[in-house]
Amino acid sequence: MTATPPSDKALVPFVSVENMMNLVHHIGIEPMLRGLSDYIEEDFRRWELFDKTPRIASHSAEGVIELMPTSDGEVYGFKYVNGHPKNTKEGLQTVTAFGLLANVGNGYPVLLSEMTVLTALRTAATSAMVAKHLAPKGADTMAMIGNGAQSEFQSLAMKAICGLKSVRLWDIDPAATRKAASNLKGLGLDVHVCSSAEESMEGAQIITTCTADKQYATILSDNMVGSGVHINAIGGDCPGKTELAPGVLHRSEIFVEYPEQTRIEGEIQQLSEDHPVTQMWEVINGTKPGRTSAGQITLFDSVGFAIEDFSALRYIRDHIGGTDLYMDLDLLADPDDPRDLFGMLQRAGRT
Amino acid sequence: MTATPPSDKALVPFVSVENMMNLVHHIGIEPMLRGLSDYIEEDFRRWELFDKTPRIASHSAEGVIELMPTSDGEVYGFKYVNGHPKNTKEGLQTVTAFGLLANVGNGYPVLLSEMTVLTALRTAATSAMVAKHLAPKGADTMAMIGNGAQSEFQSLAMKAICGLKSVRLWDIDPAATRKAASNLKGLGLDVHVCSSAEESMEGAQIITTCTADKQYATILSDNMVGSGVHINAIGGDCPGKTELAPGVLHRSEIFVEYPEQTRIEGEIQQLSEDHPVTQMWEVINGTKPGRTSAGQITLFDSVGFAIEDFSALRYIRDHIGGTDLYMDLDLLADPDDPRDLFGMLQRAGRT
């Protein structure tokens, strides 16, 4: 007697790191960033539909492991993500991630995917989608402060989605800047290597900060920021980790993903709890104004939210069909008679 | 140029349903139930070490999807599990599950495993481990009320761990009883098919209730339960789902896993919030008494807790080594230079 092979319902498509990278090249990185940006924008537009829970964190001395669940009522998704700043020294990623989508109607998972590469793409696509709404008209030059793992993704997303032409790189570590400049060569952006944060900001209408400092740091001090810019603050994303001087915050119109989370993790943890902020989804659906004058400083205080991961997983689910860039995992038991799990187990022993 | 294959650190061992079933037969189901019971008992003994969070539930009209995380400070684990009572009608499992273990020190996952089969095993192993502590001396006969997917696992675990000799089956659906009796044939238990709940309880020192009723039901009414028995109540495990008459509860000494969760999900949701209960871990580590007299009714109001899943995943992690009963999943990105995720992605495109 042979065991029955698992039914389709018991198989969950899995996208490995290798297949995710192949999918990026299959679609093309800029079209994929634009596609992700469209999916994220669509989910921001229907923001009110979603179950929103702050991430569920398990803290230790070395770092944090988090689960970020959400649901739109039809599809449920969560991301597993860790943050261990010390990992870099050991040759490991500071952040690794994977995610899952499931059918709300029957609870069966429908996609398991790596999300280390995908999170890098969705973070950049979110930044660029927001900059499209908030940056001053004709913005084509960006200061990229912090040239780590996210910097090239940010630069390319701003090119693909906002028409960025020129990126001005700066990092306290010249090796990081050399790496970013080398990676960006030949991708259609003018790349300028700068020797100070101040120099990187010359002529820039968009300022992206994405440094790895764990402690309160001042990457942008008040006198560095002129009027009429859009600040895309990525690096301040956990309690005790901020990049902007309070003076910059006080001169800016501040836009956030989910205030409950941003007030704990974002730049605005430096401000009073009732400091006014605008939720980005209200700008996107037209309820609230975005930029109201050319001279204004707009600030996207980005910490990353579960809905963006959900959008990214939806994009992957919709784009792996017809490719061989996934494998089916036998993750779920599926006995012919749901009450006969034991019988299924016994029959497996007779093969 | 070829892409570097992922390093060991980026590969996560994955145990599929097929491999889990093969592992059960490789080890033997009774030795595996005993092993799981030992791991669970060990973790109950060091209960205070664990991060304990009630499960994080996403409810919908059709069911619930839950994440159950925990950590002992060195290892982090979570289980994904759904509960959709209507699934059975559609030929799907009511409950499917998978789980993960990760290294707290660096956040890297170390095991991904199916948990539909494994949860059935750990639930039975937990019941039997608790019965070993609470059932009257010499208990060798069990009434098994509710003959669904969990019933054979419960019966075998009680045999393997408590020396059960005889099981008395009853279910409102005779087909379920026929299935359970057939599955249990030849496994070393005297199996009696009974025609009523009352009949099933004749001579039984252990009474296990595990029915699928969603609503408040009375599987055990007060006059059915004599003195000197151990009740293993499995089926009352969510708000609105109970199996025992309040009178039975009031006559019993009640033992629970995690009171905060059991008061919401267990039989004791029918009692006042300050009704005294004993935490099972305190019995196991010797802090609190278990059964104190032969005539007492002990009741394990079991709802299933994250630590039991953690123990089960630890057992799997410790027992797949040296077998070919897992595969390595390329779930985590692992660039040579952690800051050079983009470079890794670019190089993948050149292969």
Note down, in words, how this protein is organized:
- The structure is a homodimer of 351-residue chains.
- Chain A has 351 residues and is α/β, with parallel strands linked by helices.
- The first copy, chain A, folds into two domains: 8-117 and 307-349, ornithine cyclodeaminase, domain 1 (2-Layer Sandwich); 124-304, NAD(P)-binding Rossmann-like Domain (Rossmann fold, 3-Layer(aba) Sandwich).
- Helix content of chain A is 33%, strand content 23%.
- Chain A has eleven helices and 16 strands.
- Chain A has helices at residues 17-27, 29-45, 116-134, 151-162, 174-184, 197-200, 246-251, 259-265, 280-284, 306-319, 341-349; strands spanning 11-15, 51-52, 56-59, 64-71, 75-83, 97-103, 109-114, 141-145, 166-170, 190-193, 206-209, 230-233, 252-256, 278-279, 297-301, 327-330.
- In chain A, the strands form two sheets. In chain A, strands 1, 2, 3, 4, 5, 6, 7 and 16 form an eight-stranded mixed beta sheet that branches. In chain A, strands 10-9-8-11-12-15-13-14 form an eight-stranded parallel beta sheet.
- In chain A, strand 3 (56-59) and strand 4 (64-71) form a beta hairpin.
- In chain A, helix 2 (29-45) crosses helix 4, helix 2 crosses helix 10 (306-319) and helix 4 packs across helix 5.
- Chain A starts with 10 loop residues before the first strand and ends with a helix.
- The interface between A and B is large, with 84 and 83 residues.
- Chains A, B: This is Ornithine cyclodeaminase.
- Chains A, B: InterPro entries: NAD(P)-bd_dom_sf (IPR036291), ODC_Mu_crystall (IPR003462), ODC_N (IPR023401).
